[in-house]
């Protein structure tokens, strides 16, 4: 769980930026997207094979 404590004389904008950075580093958004709806085993398999193919394509160019 991401948590940000406001310091003295700290404005809301900077605290919000820190909070967004913590949330993105913790991987909360990606986890939320992943668990948004139920995924059948076939859909999961398709998604993983597509991810593997993408990774191979991008990995070979380096």
Report on the architecture of this protein.
- By secondary structure, this protein is mainly alpha-helical.
- The chain has one domain.
- The chain is built from 3 helices and no strands.
- It has helices at residues 12-26, 28-34, 41-60.
- The protein is elongated, with a radius of gyration of 18 Å.
- The two termini are 35 Å apart.
- 0% of the residues are buried.
- The mean pLDDT is 88.
Strand content: under 5%
- Tally of separate helices: 3
Per the principal axes of the C-alpha atoms, what is the gross shape?
elongated
Largest sheet: none
DSSP helix fraction: 55-70%
**What integer is the average pLDDT?**
88
| Cα distance spanning the termini | 35 Å
Q: What is the number of independent domains? A: 1
Task: Report the C-alpha radius of gyration, rounded.
Answer: 18 Å
Structural class: mainly alpha
In short:
This protein is mostly helical and 62 residues long.
Task: Walk me through the topology.
Layout: H1 12-26, H2 28-34, H3 41-60
From the structure above, extract its key features.
mainly alpha; 62 residues; 3 helices; elongated; single chain
């Amino acid at each position: 769980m991401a948590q940000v404590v406001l310091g003295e004389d700290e404005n809301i904008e900077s605290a919000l930026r820190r909070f967004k950075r913590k949330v993105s580093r913790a991987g909360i958004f990606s986890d939320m997207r992943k668990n948004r709806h139920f995924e059948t085993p076939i859909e999961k398999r398709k998604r993983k094979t597509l991810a593997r193919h993408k990774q191979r394509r991008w990995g070979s160019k380096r």
